[in-house]
Structures are given as structure tokens and as C-alpha cells.
Design brief:
GO terms for molecular function: tRNA N(6)-L-threonylcarbamoyladenine synthase activity. 42% of the residues lie in helices and 19% in strands. The protein starts with a strand and ends in a 25-residue tail after the last helix.
Length: 340
Amino acid sequence: MLVLGIESSCDETGVALYDTRRGLLAHALHSQIDMHAAYGGVVPELASRDHIRRALPLTQQVLAQADKTLQDLEGIAYTQGPGLAGALLVGTSIAQSLAMALNVPSVGVHHLEGHLLAPMLEENPPAFPFVALLVSGGHSQLMRVDGIGQYELLGDTLDDAAGEAFDKTAKLLGLGYPGGPAVSKLADQGKPQFQLPRPMLNSPDLNFSFSGLKTAVLTLVNNQPELNEETIKDIAWEFQESVTEILVHKCLKALKQTKLKRLVVSGGVGANKRLRTRLNEAAAKRGISVNYPRLEFCTDNGAMIAFAGAMRLHAMQPGKQDYSFSIRPRWDLTELKAPQ
């Protein structure tokens, strides 16, 4: 089954082609980072308008890369939520229009399910069941995954997510947008000079809280007589140590609690080198396997939507297709069901 995937939930337009027998055939991505950088964050209306400009040219690009035409498509998948309402409407309306015109089935995909399944695109995909750490945008969650659509929430953030904490810390340090890569780059050059808290590190549950850490960074910054380059690097180092220590500790606790030996890490923060190093070291000591998507699939992309959609379309019973559509700007991952 040849499936076209369209991702447009926030500030990246991603399109990909996935074949259930041959795997990923082609993918293309346009990032809006440069456009939003001037505003210090994503402007929803600008994001929506840019998705309109990019979606169809990217679709033509991936079809050409794979030497396919629209008539070769056997299904279309699109991000139905969660995300920015206007941005979701662009991808959803284009996908459903194409599906209706081509008379092929379509399926709305949960954005976080796409991230969660992204490691399945690699040469050695993880087997079910496993624990997943989802650290994407405003989400920091630990899930038990027993199969596609079989998700149990183990832990969630009570306030800010890890990615949001990175972005807000970057702003406090006077760094650019997006904040995560900027903080990580400087952290690699820093040294242990300060001490920041590890919120909820020893809480009895698997939940996270990063709002207090952001406030601690603010206090630390305000207490510095001079915020020079070396001081910024050292604060970034300590901040990254705090976040990664918390994430690693909670992952290990979740694995122990579920008695599972496989961990999957997905989402933008999953690209953090320090997090990967600490997880790999801890996993090696405990006989645990850790799977990550390739770096280009940690951020939003069409490949993960094409794959997740293909898995659902392939398992669905054929029936009359309804091309009306709706979006889910807020959508709990645990509401999903296994494909039938």
C-alpha cells in the first residue's frame, strides 16, 4: 500500500511517501524557523499561510523523487491533531481533497503517535511492548506501548514540558529561537559552576515539572553581576544536566515499574546529545535497549505521519469513505484505539 503523509501541525510542512512493502520512498520538509525567528516564537497565522504555499509543491517533489504520480497513491494520511488549529486545517483539507479526488481512503493521524512510531522507520525497529519517552514541543510524557493504538499513560508534565523549558531558558539567556539547539550548543562548551534544582526527581510517581526549573534559571540569571559568555555557557550546562538527569531517572523508573527492557525516545528533545549519552550509559549498565529515530525525524516530519497512517490504513477494514473532516487541536493520545 502506497501512502502519502502530510504533516502541518505547527511550524514545519512535511510530506512523505511510505510503501508498506518497500518502506520509506521519499520525504521532504520545509521549516519555518527563519520566518518565526524575528518574533521569538511561532505566529499561528503566518504558519498557516506558509503551509498553504508549501504543501502541494512538496507533494510534487516527493512524488518526483519516488518516480510516482498521484494516481499511484492508495491512501493518504494527515496530522489531525494536536497542534495549531489553522495549521491543522491546511494539511487536513488538502489531504481530504486529494483523497476524494483520487477515490482513495484517508486517515487522520495523532501527531504524537507519529513521533512515538518514528523509530519504526529505522533498520532495527523496536519490538512491542516498550516504554516510550515523548518529549516533543509542549509534551513530556512516559507511555507504555503494547501495540499501535495501545497506549497507557505512565507519567506526564504537570506544567511546562522539557522543550518549553529549553525555549524559555534560551530566552532568559538572550539566545535565539528555537531555544533547544541554542542551549544545547552552549551547554557543550560549559562547565559545572552552578547548582540548579531537579524538580520531582524523587517523587513517587512518574510525572514531570519544569516550571520551577525555569524560575530557578531566572533567579540565577538575575543574581549574576555580569552575564558574560562564559557564565551563559555554564548556566546552559547546568540547566541541561538538570533536565537530562530528570528524564533519565524517570525513564529508568518507568522501565523498572513496568518490568520492560525496551525504551523508545521520540520528539525534538530526543535529539539532545547529552540526553542520548546519559540514556545509553544507563541502559548499557542495566541490559536495556534504547531506540531513537534518526535526528531528522526527531522534529516534525511527514515520514512519521505517512508510516503511522500506513499502519492504520493497512489494518482497517475496507468500507465507504467519508471525506468530511474535523481537526483535534487538543487530543489525548490515550484516546486512540487499535486500528480495526
